[in-house]
Design a protein that fits this description.
35% helix, 4-stranded mixed sheet, 428 residues, alpha+beta
Length: 428
Amino acid sequence: MKSSLSAAEARRIALAAQGFARPRPAAAGTRQLNVALARMATLQIDSVNVFARSHYMPLFSRLGPYDPAALDRLLFAHRSPYVEYWAHVAAFIPAADWGLFRFRMDDLRAKYGTKADGFFQSNREIVDWVRAELADRGPLRPAQIEHDAKRGARGPWWDWDVVKNALEYLWMFGEVAIAGRRGFERRYGLAADVIPADVLAAPVPREEAIRELVRRAAVAYGVATAADIADYWRIANRPAVLAALADLTDSGELLPVTVDGWTVAGRPAKAWLHRDAHVPRRVDATALLTPFDPVVWFRDRAERLFDFEYRIEIYTPAPQRRYGYYSLPVLVGDDVVGRVDLKADRAASTLRVQSAWWEHGRPADAAARVADELRAAARWQSLESISVSRWGDAVDDIADVLPEASRHDTGPSEPVALAPEEPANVEP
């Protein structure tokens, strides 16, 4: 195996590791969903729903227009093989992996559960009451839990009430698990009622867990720096990550490499290639990526891989937005060649391209391929038509190859509402 890689080889390795070197299946069912989820190892959750909620998007990016209800059945079924936890951030993981995050549960309890003047200790009566309610009644939505505190002072997290706060802390500490959702509202249950007993009985020791998470990140990325690996699971303990990388290198599972153009302070950056990583001669994908896809979720890595500077602008005042409210990176071939800001206008059954922009290096057929992906996106979301705005240097190119699309005016001052159910992922 090579000890150095070109930038193009690194891109292809990274995309292949995430499943983009394979053709999309003619039809995607449960097996294909499970395979894609296994490649990513975790699936980030985010509440923004202007086009589609983020956890649906990576499967569409890899598999094409699948049935979202099939993913719902897989993720939210009784005794689902998947469960939610703070993995990358709030994310789905295999329920069998619950024990890998015991060290994080312990760290979060030490951080938030022990301060005398913190929420958890200051509201122990309510916490104990909520825990008892779940023990007596089984998994519940917050709205199903009644307590005088719900009519009192509001909590500090996004105006959630104290009962919801108690549930969230108990979830972070591993006492409570998510037993599914109704719509987008979580159902909380005691971990013993949600997680298989053999998994609960086998927490993984910290050092072993971090080593395994580092290994899985290396597999999921194909080639990566230590910072990339640490970010995959948001492991802040850099010495522990470096120790795991050294151990995996000594065992021969990881191979030290340099990548052309990957530098730190002007010197070649240290990187690792997984021994099983595939180095395809060509990757010819077309995909719209959510901002929370593993391909781009660590912005430093996205810039290193694709020379793509990316920030979402949902919290940027509308007149100051450069690209749009929630622009999606556009993958064509083996490179990110643009971004499109999409909105599903359900009332008008229209997919609105609110803006579209090119990056460097797009191939001659990029517009046509993006147009086909927009048609697939509209079909996936059961939208009957497409409308293309006049904002961005790619909109006219796309409209020219979408003769069935209408045009509309939009711009950086047009507001788009944030989905109200939950805030975006921010650790409390």
